[in-house]
Amino acid sequence: MTNVLSAVAWPYADGPRHIGHVSGFGVPSDVFSRYSRMAGHDVLMVSGTDEHGTPILVQAEQEGVSPRELADRYNRVIVEDLQGLGLSYDLFTRTTTRNHYAVAQELFKVVNRNGYLVPRTTQGAISPSTGRTLPDRYIEGTCPICGYDGARGDQCDNCGNQLDAIDLRNPRSRINGETPLFVETEHLFLDLPALADQLGGWLQTRSGWRPNVLKFALNLLDDVKPRAMTRDIDWGIPVPLPGWDGKRLYVWFDAVIGYLSASIEWARRTGDPEAWRRWWCDPSAESYYFMGKDNITFHAQIWPAELLAHNAAPGPYGVLNLPTEVVSSEFLTQEGRKFSSSRSVVIYVRDVLARYGPDPLRYFLSVAGPETQDTDFTWSEFVRRNNDELVGTWGNLVNRTASMINRNFGAIPAAGELTVADQELIAKSNQAFGAVGDLLRQHRVKQALGTAMGNAADANQYLSQQAPWKESDLDRRGTILHVAAQVVADTNRLLAPFLPHSTQQVHATLGGTGVFAPSPEIQEVDDLDGGPAYPIITGDYTDQPRWASVPVVPGTPVAPPTPIFSKLGPEIVEEELARLYKRD
Fold this sequence. Notes:
By secondary structure, this protein is of the alpha/beta class. The protein contains 18 helices and 18 strands.
């Protein structure tokens, strides 16, 4: 058994999540975490809402509410979205807890004490019309490196390079389009050049990473520069050093620390405050960070640099583990267009859950998501995969097997003498656990799901060839259905990480009792250190099915089945496209 940290990107608390978000951080991390638990590992899956920074402040001002009120509203919306999708967090919290403030400030003080935060005078942008600071992310212009018109003042999403707002050509405010003024201001910078050799050495030891992620991370070292870790803003975590009053921690400095602070909060809530160290301080522990490709910089460079700077002479948290792997997905587009909530090019998670349920969405994002290249979501493909694969292949196998068992025997029949065909199917089904598990350990979710679904296709073909409905020998008919039930049970285990809601139903269909695929729950909790109460996602995931074939038990009653999945009509495509274009 290995301690496995599943560190899931922190969704920004400025609105509901759309399916492009959860295609990168949500579903892949949950599939991996559920599999790892079934395989016997001790998993800690943590995240929360990221609630500091300029976008929250600007949006709150536009809506006439405080930043905290805005964050409270969308924290709850996001918690409901992610719990409804079945993401099995041990703790999903938020960055406005007093626990997080304390952990972030402690790391900042240690990194500063170790000499890796250096003061520098720089050019900060202000709004000419309001006189207020205009942070980098709210300035757009032409990238001086690749020429992309739409680069932000801190990073170009086209070429991935770090930028300074003053270097943009034709800079403009994203708020009102005006040209910003640049004035001198002092900030504390993370000394990335001083850490570049250590970062490069660490990255060179990484094996098994997706090639695009590792190549991108190594390329970042070609022109590494100090990066500001403080901001002129009045919404965020105060800089915990004398002489820096009025400054706040850069939102990306504190957000990545959330993985640690959430782990500490989880441990405190379990009554064992030091339990988090098994995932963070034990060198044999493994940690996997899940996100979209726009966050590679912060997880493959900034966060490891913070950890290296901290570990040079660690504080009370001790030496902290660097990531085992940064698991980044590419982008999901919608009907050929980039997702954009502001432009209403969006499909919200909660809308899909309300109309189609969680597992059809989880299935699509697993089998056709942006694992290693940008992928387009279309409603026609969503309907096709639901009907042909979930309903036509897997649902059909479950229903026909359970129906024939119920009609002919009322319970799972015993197996008689096995033929070569029987033995080959059972052996292949058994071997699928090794194949699918190997693929999931490599984060090859698409291929893993395809292999699991291949089990169902093989069983459908077996039933068609053996035709138990034509078999006059009752013992032989029972043997065929016993073999089919075994493969259904195996396939259900193989699909449990991907389809937790429906695999619970299949478990019951074959006469199973109790929890098969544990579900997360929402709890209302008090801040551990006296702050306002808030909702969290958590759950008890100790009762997991084993990642192995378990023999079905003859005599287990099987009732008449009900359909596991619903077929979607072609009109769904027109209805959903009408919703999209109506918003346009």
